[in-house]
Design a protein that fits this description.
Shape: globular
Structural class: alpha/beta
Strand order of the largest sheet: 1-9-8-7-6
Strand content: 5-15%
Mean pLDDT: 93
Distance between the termini: 50 Å
Largest sheet: 5 strands, mixed
């Protein structure tokens, strides 16, 4: 149902109706099939870790009747596909088109996840635990915390591993500056595709600040602001943790020694005005609250 009815039927129709060419719509559909099969082929624990970064951004995604983990899996398989390239850089896909696509994908993807079908020969979502051990340990602890009995904070420990360096010059890209975002620090405020594996100047500036010891906290609306590319997202998170930084999102705290999550309901992230959502302390644990209050003094 996912491949035949959604990827070869509903998805191309939605995309061409929004202005994509037939060839581009088919290209997105092929990428979505590939990503969905890779996600479905993962062991349960790996699946949980990779969808956890996106649970906070689906708090109001439709259908609301679907569990948060399923809506987050739609983000990983569908939203974070080549679909992003036709939305982030000026269209033609609008936010409403993305909403329609992800809503239509939810039930078909649920069926695929129950019966993955065709084996995956080259799964780029696998093996991230070995490449980025600190990020993986941190997200695994966060995943376990979110599945617990309502606790909001939990200690975690980082595995021993070489300290990663900044990306090389061949991985850099210059992105257009955003005019509708209120950044809290360097590392936000550019227009780039969230699935691009390269590093824009703002992201590199933020990583340089952390490496130099000039930023102990990295505020983000959501972890997708690091990247929608799971490999790159974990790579950046691993770098930040290795250099002792604490990452604060609208609902999460990720640090080398503790993870935290806002008690439900989660607050919807606002990528355009992070200050507004960071003012909401409801549901935060004591460590999380302390970091937010300290951050607010710097505004």
């Amino acid at each position: 149902m996912f491949v035949r009815q959604f990827c070869h039927g509903a998805l191309p129709d939605l995309l061409t109706g929004a202005g994509l060419s037939d060839d581009d719509a088919r290209g997105v559909a092929v990428d979505v099939i590939r990503r969905a099969r890779m996600l479905a082929a993962l062991p349960a624990n790996d699946f949980d870790v990779l969808v956890t970064p996106f649970i906070e951004e689906v708090s109001q995604h439709r259908p609301l009747s679907a569990p948060a983990w399923l809506r987050a899996s739609v983000v990983v398989a569908v939203r974070n596909s080549r679909l992003e390239d036709f939305h982030a850089l000026g269209g033609p896909l609008r936010a409403a088109d993305i909403t329609a696509v992800t809503e239509a994908a939810t039930e078909p993807l649920a069926l695929l996840l129950e019966e993955p079908g065709t084996p995956v020969s080259n799964n780029t979502l696998a093996g991230l635990d070995e490449r980025y051990p600190r990020a993986w340990a941190c997200l695994a602890a966060l995943s376990d915390l979110m599945a617990s009995d309502g606790s909001t904070e939990r200690a975690c420990s980082m595995p021993q591993a070489p300290v990663p360096d900044l990306p090389g010059s061949h991985e850099k890209i210059h992105a257009e500056r955003a005019t509708n975002v209120r950044p809290l620090m360097a590392g936000q405020g550019v227009v780039a595709s969230g699935v691009d594996s390269r590093f824009d100047q703002a992201l590199l500036a933020m990583m340089q600040q952390v490496k130099d010891g000039n930023a102990e906290v990295v505020p983000l609306s959501a972890l997708s602001r690091l990247s929608r590319n799971s490999d790159k997202q974990l790579r950046v998170l691993d770098f930040l943790l290795a250099h002792g930084a604490t990452v604060l999102t609208t609902n999460y705290l990720l640090s080398p020694d503790v993870v935290a999550v806002r008690s439900r309901p989660l607050v919807k992230p606002d990528s355009y005005d992070l200050r507004r959502t960071m003012r909401q302390l409801r549901g935060l644990g004591p460590t999380h609250t302390g970091w937010i209050k300290a951050l607010r003094k710097q505004w």
